[in-house]
Amino acid sequence: MSILHQPEKGPVIHDWRPEDPSFWGASGKKTAMRNLWMSIPALLLAFAVWMVWSTVIVRLNAIGFTFSTDQLFWLAALPGLSGATLRIFYSFMVPIFGGRRWTALSTASLLLPSIWMGFAVQDLSTPYSIFVIIALLCGFGGGNFASSMSNISFFYPKAQQGTALGLNAGLGNLGVSVMQFCVPLVIGAGLFGAAGGDAQALADGGQLWLQNAGFIWVPFILLVTLAAWFGMNDLSSAKASFSEQAVIFTRQHNWLMCWLYLATFGSFIGFAAAFPLLIKTAFPAVTALKFAFLGPLVGALARPLGGWVADKLGGARVTLWNFVAMIVAVFGVLHFLPEAGEAGNFYGFLAMFMLLFVTTGIGNGSTFRMIPVIFRTFHERASAGQGAPAREQALREAGKESAAVLGFSSAIGAFGAFFIPKSFGTSIALTGGPAMALYIFVAYYVSCIAVTWWWYSRKGAAIPC
Fold this sequence. Notes:
The protein has helices spanning about 20-50, 55-60, 70-90, 95, 100-110, 110-120, 130-135, 140-155, 160-185, 210-215, 220-230, 240-245, 250-280, 295-315, 315-335, 345-385, 390-415, 415-430, 435-455; strands at about 10-15, 200, 205-210, 235. By secondary structure, the chain is an all-alpha fold. The longest helix has about 40 residues, at about 345-385. The two termini are about 35 Å apart. About 55% of the residues are buried.
């Protein structure tokens, strides 16, 4: 028996049975944990590069560029558009290429926008169109989430996927907060000497090295790429062609979970992208970059909590009440915004936005807990009464489909990184403030309560989870 459970050598694992308690205890858990803890820093860097424009745009005009507020919101939004689109394709890459190889390659791809940005911001003649291209390339970081979550889902038994996926996503999401905390610090010093380029002069006589916002990630990207290539594993049992995975497009529950995840993760990443410039626009006297990192920080830390609580109480129950809390938080934000000549209350606004970020994090974890349960239940029902071989096949199909749905729903959810900053920009352009956009978000969250209750939470729901 001990021979049977000896861990395999080499990057490809052919015998992987996480639902077998003896296999899991002997070698599976250790291998899964190693892959998880290498996946997390790769995902953290991906989020940092994906959202870096949310911080850069706040100082871009200060060093001599002359972009309008709407143009700056576009630069914050475009990585969301490209990242969400790339996620659609990245969702299916792990079963085709393998988790180890794809993690290493997708992490290495972050070098291109990081280095290019570092050079572009140093030249005041750089046209806006070049910044648009770099912003779109930062979407490589957004795409990585789909493949990362799909990969980790294969390593863990269903009973532990809420916690494992919550850790991977939650600590990976911290990349936004880490970036928004670190960039204001690193742009204040010439960290790379002559190799990093000259400082940019500010109107008040100060200096910035805005190029460091891109260059700072380069050594870490190289290190994590090598760690993923030599330290992670590919699972042969996770192999599947695109056509095998494409069955999810015929599943009603794929589209329902996309709708819910757009409201949770889409809100998290969209608010994270817009938050610094939103603070600067609504409260001009406040130094936005001193506070911007707090929202993504609490949202990311809340995500593992959401997965863990959903493991204990049920994903649908947690998700439904979490949407109620999101609506309350949005009305709190509206209450403290400047309006009709009133100055508003920044710290009340900040507190309500922190609550909103927390609820987006909890919702991220709880919705991702729902997906594996939904598809396992679906396939177990279909194979009921057909014997053990049919049940084993059903579990394999459930694993592949839930991994694909995790990736695809994350792709749809990522469009929030585009729509939310653009909604705020449009609302401000049309009405002078962000309130119109916030009311639209409330209406959307109400629809999510209805979906969660009808299909997953009420007595007699299609798939209680």
